[in-house]
Amino acid sequence: MSGRARSVAPMDVEGEAARILAELRGLADPVRAENERRYLKSTFVHIGVPVPALRKVAVSAVREPPARDDLLALAAALWTVEDAGRPVHEARMAAVEVLVKRVKVLEPGDVEVAERMVLDSASWVYVDNLAERVAGALVLREPGLAAVLDDWVADPCMWVRRSALLALLPGVRTGAPDLARLARFGDALIGETEFFIRKALGWVLREQSKKDPAWVANWVEAHIRDVSGVTLREAVRHLPDGDAVRLTAAYKAQPR
Hints:
- The chain is mostly helical.
- Helix content is 64%, strand content 2%.
- The protein has a domain at 13-102: Leucine-rich Repeat Variant (Alpha Horseshoe), CATH 1.25.10.90.
- Helix 5 runs parallel beside helix 7 (124-141) and helix 6 packs antiparallel against helix 7.
C-alpha cells in the first residue's frame, strides 16, 4: 500500500439529484401516495414509493463514498426539491438516506447540518433518522459533541428536543450509554405534554432496559409520580415481569 489517500471522483450533484427524483417518479403509486400523506398528516407532495425501494434508489448515488462536500451538496439538493411550491416527501427522505449511508464521511461540525434539517422538518419520519443515525452517529464517534445535545434538550422546537433524546440511542445500542445525560434529559423532559417527546423518552429507556434493566427500573420508580403513561408503557416493555407489574401498579395508584 502506498499510504496515499484514496482519490474521490467529483460528483455531478445536480445530475444525481435529478436522476434520483426521476427514478422515484418512475415508481409512483398514487394510491400509496395519498394514503401515506393522510397517515403522516402531511402537506408535502407525495409520490408513493415504499421505503426499501426509495432507499435503493437514493443510496445508489453514494455507492462509493463521495467527497464530503459532494455528499452535503447532494443532500441539500434533494432536501430542497419542490413541486408546485411544496417540498417533495420522497426527495427529503432520499436526502436523509444518503447522509445515513455515508455518515462516516461527515465531520463533527456537520451535526449542525442535521440540526438545520430537523428544524426544517415537519414530521418524525425525517427527524428520527436524522437524530439517531446522523447526529447520534456523530456523537458516538466524537463524544465531545454530546454537549450540543445539552442545548437541544432545551430548544423551543419540539423536534429538536426529541432529537436530543434519540441521539442517545447509538450509545445505548452499542453498550456505551451516556447515563448521566439520559438521566438529566429525562428529568428535564418528564413534564412534557408532547406525545412525541414522551414516546421518545420511553423508547430510549426501553432500549436501555435491554442492557441494564435495573437502571431503568430504578429510574422509573424514582419518577413514578411524574412519568406519563406513554413513557411508562415503553420503558417497562422489556423489564422482568416482576418489575413491570410492580411499576405499572405503582403508576396506576398515583393520583392523576
